[in-house]
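Fill-in record for GNAT family N-acetyltransferase.
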Amino acid sequence: MRTERLVMRRWQDGDREPFAAMNADPEVMEHFPAPLTRAESDGLIASFETRFEEDGFGFWALETAGTGEFVGFTGLSAVRFQAPFVPAVEIGWRLARSAWGRGYASEAARRALRFAFEDGLDEVVSFTAVANTRSRAVMERIGMTRDPADDFDHPLVPDGHPLEHHVLYRTTTARHAG
């Protein structure tokens, strides 16, 4: 899949090194419990590829259309933990710091939403730690809305951890029609 400036594609072996560097960056991983090791990062790629095979969608690697530079990922994933809003499909993204501030996350997320709704989904959710204002801004830019009553404590984040409480945003096919 393409956007004006990005290619959204399946993962390649050449993505492993820049992906691991991105996941080891403390600023990129500020709103996650910890940066990832190389083995954890490689394991994520394997799980992303498994989701494509099982679900028909997943988190696509992002590269710039002009240079082919790996800049992160954006895509869709079935939520696999228990929460009041599950079953659901989430949209998510993570970009290398060098790609921040260029509108890539919003651009790729809009394309992923179009894919989701063309694929027959009625609703897509997104969630993040309360303090993650950059991701929350992307959610709002792509037309997602938040009801504070839907916010939740993420079951995969340790109890009492500063990142435990998450905000939930939603969008629907109807909101994106036309």
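KEY FINDING: The beta strands are 6-9, 59-64, 70-78, 89-95, 123-129, 145-146, 152-153, 165-172.
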